[in-house]
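HOLO CASE FILE
Compound: magnesium ion
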Amino acid sequence: MGRTNSGSRGGGRHTGPAVRAGDATRGDAGPPPVIQIRRVTKSYGLGDATVHALRGPSDPVTGEPLGVTLDIEQGDFVAVMGSSGSGKSTLMNILGCLDVPTGGRYLLDGTDVGHLDEGQLSLVRNRKIGFIFQSFNLVPRTTALAQVELPLAYAGARSAERRRRALAALSLVGLADRSGHKPNELSGGQQQRVAVARALVTAPAMLLADEPTGNLDSRSTEEVLGIIDGLNAIGRTVVLITHEDEVARHAKRVIRLVDGAIVSDVRQGPVAGPPPAIRPELVGGRS
Ligand SMILES: Nc1ncnc2c1ncn2[C@@H]1O[C@H](COP(=O)(O)OP(=O)(O)OP(=O)(O)O)[C@@H](O)[C@H]1O
Ligand SMILES: [Mg+2]
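Model generated. C-alpha cells follow.
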C-alpha cells in the first residue's frame, strides 16, 4: 500500500541550501514536522451506510482501516491529488482544524489538537493557518482592504496596524491599487488574490488551499500559483489540493489519494530551497 512520508526530510540527500529563510538555527535533525498525523480515520454515518472518507490501508488480518499517517515538514509545498470523493477535502478540513478525525491523532506544530476545545481550535486556526478556497469565500459588498483586515480584527490588532498590514498583503499580491474595490468590482483572479492576501496577512505558519485555481482561467491560475510559489519560497508551508497536473507541478511533493488512502507520495523538489516552478521575478513580492 502507499508509502508514507517517513524519511522525506531528506537527511542530507537533497542538495538545496541547508538553511532556510527564518530558520537560521536549523540543525541536521531539523525542527519537528509542522504536521504529524497518525492513523487518522474519518467516517460518516453508521453501520452498512458508513462512508470511510479517510481510511488508510486495511489491516491485512481484520480488514479494518488502519488510518492515514503523514508528516509534513515546515517549508514544504505539498499537492494533494485524487479523484472526486477520494478524501482530499476531508483531509484538508482535518489539517485545518475545521473538522475532527473519527480516530487517530493530529499534532499541529507539536500540539495535539484532539485535546483542544472549540475556542482553542479557533485560536489555532486564526494564528497558525491561512485558508484559500475554490470559491474565494469573500464577504459581499466589502472592500478588498476590509476583507484582508478581518483576520487581524479577530486577532485583536489595532486599526492603524490592521490597515498597514492589510495594505502590505495586498501589495504582495499585486493589488495595492484595488484596495477600495468590492468583490463584484474585481475579476475572478483578482478576487482570489484578495483571498490569498487575507490568508497570509496574519503570517500563518501554514497555508491550506482547496482547489484555489479551480474557478480561474489559465492566466489567473498562473498569477495565483506564482504568489503561492513566492510564499513558499520565503518559508511558508503550503498544502494545496488540486485535480490538475499543471498545478501539482508547482509543489515539492505530490500525494495521491484513492478511496481515503495515500497510494503514492512523490518528492519533486527538496523541502529546503525554492519550489520547482517558481518564476524568479516573483520572489519577494510583486509590483
Ligand atoms: N458530511 C458528510 N457526510 C457524509 N459523507 C461525506 C460527508 N463529507 C464527505 N463525505 C463523503 O466522503 C468522501 C470524501 O469526500 P471529500 O469531500 O473529502 O472528497 P474530495 O476528494 O474532496 O472530492 P472532490 O474532488 O469532489 O472535492 C466522499 O465519498 C463523500 O461523499
Ligand atoms: Mg473536495
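CASE NOTES: Helices lie at 88-95, 118-128, 144-154, 159-172, 188-200, 218-233, 245-248. The chain is about 25% helix and 20% strand.
CLOSED: yes
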